[in-house]
Design a protein that fits this description.
With 180 residues, the chain is an alpha+beta fold. It is built from six helices and five strands; from the N terminus they run ααββααβββαα. The N terminus is likely disordered.
Length: 180
């Protein structure tokens, strides 16, 4: 009951406070809503930060779409380098990144961080370099000869450890015999 009474007395105060605040100008009300940027990360590499949406597609959705396109790539696609193609998007210069003729993502001028002073071309070059590095690393890790070589090195390391253990235990026995 005390809560209801307390809330009933708070309502008129809130109404008075709301009427005391001047209305927000129409220009501020019609401002574009804030869009949170989203980082595209592939193989633990930050490729690009999407800072703007594409129509109704938010930056977070753009990341999900690109990751889906990357998952759909075949091994033969990954053997080709990632390239960038300049073009126009909604009247602005933009770059499309593709691999083996398949579009991966588009980098727009609005995706460039205006505070850092970077240029669109620098962002595109870095994205292409990072995607190519991730592509090469993936191919290296999934190459059979690499896996066999790493397994052989692991087996050799285990064998060397076991041999060292055996020799140290034999040395310990001999030292004990000599000490007594």
């Amino acid at each position: 009951l005390a809560i209801l009474v307390g809330s009933a007395t708070a309502v008129p105060v809130a109404a008075q406070t709301a009427s005391a605040v001047p209305p927000v100008p129409r220009t501020a009300q019609s401002a574009a809503p804030h869009i949170d940027p989203a980082d595209l990360i592939v193989a633990n590499r930050r490729i690009v930060t999407f800072r703007t949406g594409l129509g109704v597609i938010s930056p977070t959705s753009r990341v999900a779409l690109v990751q889906g396109r990357i998952r759909e790539l075949e091994r033969s696609d990954l053997e080709q380098p990632v390239i960038s193609n300049a073009g126009n998007f909604a009247g602005h210069q933009a770059y499309a990144l593709e691999i083996n003729g398949k579009a991966l993502l588009a980098i727009l001028p609005e995706d460039v961080d205006p505070i850092s002073g970077e240029r669109l071309e620098e962002v595109v070059e870095r994205a292409v370099a990072e995607l190519n590095a991730a592509r090469v690393a993936y191919l290296e890790l999934h190459r059979a000869s690499f896996v066999v070589k790493q397994a052989g090195l692991a087996a050799a390391a285990i064998l060397a450890f076991a041999l060292a253990w055996y020799l140290l235990s034999r040395l310990r026995r001999h030292v004990r015999k000599w000490a007594y």
